[in-house]
């Protein structure tokens, strides 16, 4: 009986919390679609967490590579890779603009070689996330339904699927730099999905 009474007291609070949480994105977002608002919110959280990880590595370790093999990106090159690709995704992929695959790789590799300070990298990384957030906010459902073919894949996918690719790409490279932190005896910032 006491358990039932306790549950009856708790239930309205749980329902109220879940309803508030479920609509919070549409209440605060200026997005043109629900999915765009959700992706924008996800990118905001990814930005905060990725910047926290980037800030943890001392500047003198930004050249750290987990291997003597110089084809493996350094910590700083991983972040420059994210900057370049976040900007490319926002300006091209999420706009369904075709591009030349080999030219993309050539530009990306050249960008990764540019000398930058830790502060410059973090500033550019932050702005690249802002660009993605703005892009997702401005996309309609019809935009997300647009079919697009990556030069490397050759199978058309919706921009909704491409948005998941963007998220996956960031997660992949952030996971790599988390390993770099651990290899340098640095415990990474605690993961918080939201």
Outline the structure in words.
By secondary structure, the protein is mostly helical. The chain has one domain (31-183): dinb family like domain (Four Helix Bundle (Hemerythrin (Met), subunit A)). It contains seven helices and two strands, in the order ααααααββα. It has helices at residues 2-28, 34-56, 75-91, 101-112, 118-137, 141-145, 159-183, and strands spanning 147-148, 157-158. Strands 1-2 form a two-stranded antiparallel sheet. It is globular, with a radius of gyration of 20 Å. It starts with a helix and ends in an 11-residue tail after the last helix.
Structure characteristics:
single chain, 194 residues, mainly alpha, Four Helix Bundle (Hemerythrin (Met), subunit A), two-stranded antiparallel ribbon, 7 helices, 66% helix
Count of separate DSSP helical elements: 7
CATH H level: which superfamily?
dinb family like domain
According to DSSP, the number of beta strands is 2
Name the CATH class: Mainly Alpha
Distance between the termini: 36 Å
Instruction: Work out the radius of gyration.
Output: 20 Å
Major beta sheet summary: 2 strands, antiparallel
**Structural class by SSE content:** mainly alpha
Which percent range describes the beta-strand content?
under 5%
Strand order of the largest sheet: 1-2
Chain-averaged pLDDT: 86
Helix content: 55-70%
Instruction: Please name the CATH topology.
Output: Four Helix Bundle (Hemerythrin (Met), subunit A)
* Topology order in helix (H) and strand (E) letters: HHHHHHEEH
CATH architectural grouping = Up-down Bundle
Task: Sum up the overall morphology in one term.
Answer: globular
Low-confidence stretches: 4-27
- Counting structural domains, the number is 1
């Amino acid at each position: 009986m006491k358990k039932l009474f306790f549950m009856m007291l708790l239930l309205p609070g749980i329902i109220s919390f879940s309803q508030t949480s479920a609509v919070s994105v549409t209440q605060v977002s200026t997005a043109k679609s629900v999915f765009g608002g959700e992706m924008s919110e996800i990118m905001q959280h990814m930005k905060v967490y990725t910047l926290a990880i980037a800030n943890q590595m001392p500047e003198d370790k930004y050249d750290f590579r987990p291997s003597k093999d110089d084809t493996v990106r350094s910590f700083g090159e991983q972040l420059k890779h994210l900057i370049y690709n976040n900007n490319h995704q926002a300006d091209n992929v999420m706009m369904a603009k075709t591009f030349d695959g080999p030219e993309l790789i050539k530009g990306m590799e050249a960008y990764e070689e540019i000398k930058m300070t830790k502060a410059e990298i973090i500033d550019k990384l932050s702005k690249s996330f802002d660009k993605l957030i703005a892009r997702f906010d401005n996309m309609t459902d019809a935009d997300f339904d647009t079919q697009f073919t990556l030069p490397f894949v050759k199978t058309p996918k919706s921009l909704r699927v491409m948005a998941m690719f963007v998220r996956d790409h960031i997660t992949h490279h952030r996971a790599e730099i988390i390993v770099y932190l651990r290899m340098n005896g640095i415990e990474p910032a605690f993961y918080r999905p939201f």
